Amino acid sequence: MKYNRTDFPKDFLFGVATSAYQIEGHAQGGAGQTHWDTFARTPGNVVRNENGDLACDHLNRFPQDLDLVRDGGFDCYRFSTSWARVLPEGRGQVNEAGLDYYDRLADALLERGIRPCATLYHWELPSFLADLGGWRNRDIAGWFADFTEVIMGRIGDRMYSVAPINEPWCVSWLSHFEGHHAPGLRDIRATARAMHHVLLAHGSAIDAMRGLGMSNLGAVFNLEWAEPADDSPEARRAADLYDGIYNRFFLGGVFNKAYPDNVREGLEPYLPAGWQDDFDIIGTPVDWCGLNYYTRKLIAPSETTWPSLQEIAGPLPKTQMGWEIEPAALTRFLTRTKQDYTGDLPILVTENGMASPERQQDSDRIDYLNQHLSAVQDALAQGVPIKGYFIWSLLDNYEWALGYEKRFGLVDVDFQTMERTPKASYTAVQKALTGGTVSLPLAQPAGAMHDHWNLVADIGGTNTRLGVITNGELTDLHKYPTGKLPELLEAFHSLRDEIGTDPRAVVAAGAGPVRNGTIRLTNAQLDLSEDDIAQATGARHTFVINDFTAAAWSVAEISHDNVEVLQGAKHPPTGTRLVVGPGTGLGVGSLLYSNGRYHTVSGEGGHIGLSPRSQDEVEIFNAARLVAPECFFDDTLTLEAEMFLSGTGLPILYQAIELAGGRAKAEPRTARDILQDARDGTDAHAVKAAHMFTTHLGAVMGDLAIVMMPAGGVFLVGGVAEKNRWLFKDAFRDAFNAGGRFSELRRSMNLYVSEQDEFGIVGANNFCKNALRR
Ligand code: FCB
């Protein structure tokens, strides 16, 4: 090589790059299907229909490959994580073997003294997410942030640096406009959306990693210099647009929070509504900027619709890819990036290299590297803060649509035997790099990362419980007096301070209607908004939900250990679930199941009509009219179910029974006393009240179940059921099943009593997990 390590500034990093799908062997180790697997299996997309099923079998051979990185004298190894290897369906269930693999890879790098430089996404999108629209769907930003947390939650502490997405232009334009890469679309609307969403996903992932305490986070762009094919203004305009689409759109979005005018003009009709409001996320500050550079293009106008330009074959020497070799453009890009976008921020060349058919004596590659290192030297001389240079690639590998024929490796791979043989370029680079070291750390600062946690709240009239959720589990529960709004917010704030970091999300459940992000807490008599909570805790995501919603979510993950089975299957099946919770009020919630996920709709639970179920009850209902006249439906004998079937309703029911029995209207008794007497059998009115309570509740639940047909079961939850399990025996079940011609159908339902403590907290937690998964 023309250069040695010592020709570069102190602590200048040399690295080598690869990506997951190109080397790992995607068909192995439990990875889910990706859009590259199916793109490659569709004739005409990839030469010889080659795919990444086995690739370089790096999954099994990585220790040996990392020895090559170490022995080559490299400071850094840039690799990517496969989303579908970690989350086969893109979200939800984790493939532990996949996580373990990246865990071992991280350790193996550190053991060899190599800095792990991760890229979270290098093009293999899980097919499940592709089915949902992939990069066209705005939700991908959230899916990607969740994936980021899963993978970095496991290996982030050992990463030197991380970039979310490799080459946004390839992910969007090349794959959705030109159709050359998966998903192989040729559609301008899909393209515009993908271009915007890929940046939104980038920002969301950076945000997620900051939330975990991570640093040294960057972005990696591929740049291609656009040279006008001639001196005409038309050619200059065409080249400028090519430059806008290819280079300035993505750099501009991330560093200047704006898209170039000439690109925006063409794409505006197709960008997602509200795109202008996303720049705070897209432009979330990063710590460095990575540039991948290979070639330049000659651009001329064309007669097509926008963007009305075409590439012209150029005169410069070309690589095996047919790409012109133009090192000077790398210097221009480095200086321009500093000047227009990144200022003093470190810049790294995160990919540079060439494909060559020469499998051993690749002097062409040595030349190419020398020329581009010269270009880097030129930019350094002009004061560009370049901090590193990475060669693409360590190994010959799966070069996407061009299959295994285009060889980019410093190390030759025989794809029959999987044998690795270093090429002349490897030895040359090794010679240039050995002997020197850099003093930079290998990974994130020790102790900087923390588990992210969520805060869940169950707000009652007098007391509020705040739960700490770590890795999805309740790890701590605190009780505070609810008080007025400032006291309540102070409780949130003090818990945040006690933990020492901002929660990622807060979910607060309480009794009362929710509108526009504010819950009117009827018992506590105050209004609590999601914004208040965000301010008090610093959380990125805040939600207020009512107690019906929380009750419904409390059974989302329920297992047979947490239920008493009154009838039906021992294990509650997955599916839509009906939840009834006689607490302070009669809560009725439904957990709807569709598309593999639970959802709730909010509603009011207590307003169901209740009518006498026997002759003697007619008198009791008549008497109730004296106690609670406002709760009757007109002048019928039908009253609001909540008036009898809840903690506050039971005393009213008891009073009505006393009145009907000829006793004067006495002071109301508490539900607790009434149920105690009923249990002891010491008060006939109490026994009657308890009986009516359970049989009416059973009948109501049976009716609701028939309406909803909840395949996932009917659940009784809540304080009354929790503390008075004895109430819900045969009479309750018989009432549930007494449904005239529908009795048999009712008997076929799965019916459970939930035995979970703290169901409000459990429900808020399940809600939270689901909301963050979006
Ligand atoms: C880059 C990609 C990489 C490889 C090289 C040749 O654009 O990041 O995966 O294909 O080109």
Automatic annotation (TrEMBL):
Keywords: Carbohydrate metabolism, Cellulose degradation, Glycosidase, Hydrolase, Kinase, Polysaccharide degradation, Transferase
One GO molecular-function entry: glucokinase activity
Active-site residues per Swiss-Prot or TrEMBL entry: E167 (proton donor), E351 (nucleophile)
A cellular component term, taken from the record's GO annotations: cytosol
Protein's GO biological process: cellulose catabolic process; glycolytic process
E.C. number: 3.2.1.21
Coiled-coil parts of chain: none
Keyword Amino-acid biosynthesis applies: no
Catalytic activities: Hydrolysis of terminal, non-reducing beta-D-glucosyl residues with release of beta-D-glucose
InterPro entries noted in UniProt: ATPase_NBD, GH, Glucokinase, Glyco_hydro_1, Glyco_hydro_1_AS, Glyco_hydro_1_beta-glucosidase
Domain of life: Bacteria
Gene3D superfamilies: 3.30.420.40, 3.40.367.20, Glycosidases
Residue sites binding substrate per the record: Q22, H122, N166, Y294, W392, E399, W400
Entry similarity comment: Belongs to the glycosyl hydrolase 1 family.
Protein name: Beta-glucosidase
Organism: Ruegeria faecimaris
